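Dissemination and training. As part of the outreach component of the grant, students in the summer workshop were shown how a complex can be specified as a set of sequence lines and then modelled as a single object. The example used during the hands-on session is reproduced here so that future cohorts can follow it. Participants entered these lines:
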Amino acid sequence: MAECAITNQIRTLRFMAGEMTQKELAERVGVTRQTIMAIEAAKYSPSLEVAFKIAQVFGKPLESVFQYQHREL
Amino acid sequence: MTSNEKLKVLKALLDSLSFRDLTLALDLLVTGAVVYFYASSLMAASAEQLASGVWISQLLVKVVGVSIVLSIVSQLLLELVSDGEVDQPMDEREKQVSLVGNKYALWTLQAGVCFAIGHYALEQNGLGVAERAPLPFFTLHIMVGAFLLAELVNYATQLIRNRMVTIYG
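and obtained this result:
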């Protein structure tokens, strides 16, 4: 059985971007704070559009923000 | 826990509520109030009233009226406290949470309708269980109850899933 997981560096990137809050990031991306919280905790995989918007906010390429990991259980 | 600490906990809870959470909580309260109105009217009614089709129809019209008035009041309240958030569409995660809520509501409604159909079939055939129904027009009450319960399940599920980090877990 395989488990797919998308991890991310949002927390680190927020810290590096002058300790940007989840609320601020949510407003810039156009989603709610709860959604950012869920994405950051890797409990919710965002759509490509939201993923690109998040990467754009930090000025990073998508693969620097999100990583795909394929794990065999 | 001192009263100051309790106030801080309450403030933290209110701060953590999104506008969607607030909307769902109000919808849940409104539906709860409608359920209370319907159930208390049935419990306060005399046996003659319960057996009267006219009285039951009037009660249903009143329930719809109460529901409309409470919905308008809750929307006005939301409009007052919102900062333009009322007009904002749901984001992608909220739409998924809404679908999960609708799924459980549909299951509840289907279960209620199946139960009502079964009860009606038994009643029409003069079979045992239906003859001991606790109320006249019991099939109708099952369907109204299932509809109201489905609404409660929908709002409660969405509220819980919205507050949880995971949608499906």
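Chain A has five helices and two strands. Students were then asked to discuss how this feature might be tested experimentally.
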